[in-house]
Amino acid sequence: MAKAKSSQRKASAPKRAGAVKPRATAAKARARRGSAQRSARSAASKRAPVQKHATAFAAPRELRQQLAELLDGDHAHADFHKAAANWPAHLVGQRPAGAPYTPWQILEHMRIAQWDILNFSLNPQHTSPSWPTGYWPPSESPAPGEWEKSVAAFEHDLEALRRLALDPKQDLFRPIPHGAGQTLLREIMLAADHNSNHLGQLILLRRLQNAWPS
């Protein structure tokens, strides 16, 4: 009997213009909207990897510029050219008291290591020197003209690394195919880090020899 009365109340309820939709109808509408939104997000997510890769590959111009400036090194310390150019020839093979290396040994070590990093980054056939002897010159003093030749070779390879950093065609984040997980970004930062470390040693040796340019 109660069920019959309930049916009568529902049947006799007047229809009101602008009445709120029943909960079931509103829930169905929300479900349809939610399904449409999920479909849109799903379609966007399928496109996202391509868009993300394109951004990582080509867009970070500011990062590339800062890597090039990091290689220059003149924001935190003297640049390489000021430290190494025009070093008095009679001093480049001399070791100040207490120093483990001569200026020539440090310079050649920097050149060889940077050459190795650059060529490893570009050439699958590159073979690195044996460690550690292959990264140091065989003598404490250079032959005539060798200092200038080493300075020029170092600056040439440094410029090549700068061009790599600035080249939008070079993917900074993709692992180097012939490496063991290294990326071009890592190799550029490694070169900058190694150069900065030994550049400080060069500057110290030159100051200990009272040969720092005024």
Overview of the structural elements:
By secondary structure, this protein is mostly helical. The chain folds into two domains: 29-59; 60-208, Four Helix Bundle (Hemerythrin (Met), subunit A), CATH 1.20.120.450. The protein is 61% helix and 0% strand. It has seven helices and no strands. The protein has helices spanning 2-12, 23-58, 61-72, 80-84, 103-122, 146-166, 184-208. Helix 3 packs antiparallel against helix 6, helix 5 (103-122) packs parallel to helix 6 and helix 5 (103-122) runs antiparallel to helix 7. The longest helix is centred in the first third of the chain and has 36 residues, at 23-58. The protein is globular, with a radius of gyration of 34 Å.
Distance between the termini: 110 Å
How many separate domains?
Answer: 2
Please, what is the average pLDDT? 81
Q: Would you tell me which CATH topology of the largest domain applies? A: Four Helix Bundle (Hemerythrin (Met), subunit A)
CATH top-level class of the largest domain: Mainly Alpha
- The outline comes out as globular
Order of helices and strands: HHHHHHH
Strand content: under 5%
Corresponding CATH architecture of the largest domain: Up-down Bundle
CATH superfamily of the largest domain: dinb family like domain
Largest sheet: none
Number of strands: 0
Relative helix content = 55-70%
Count up the helices.
Answer: 7
Low-confidence stretches: 1-24, 40-56
Radius of gyration: 34 Å
Structural class: mainly alpha
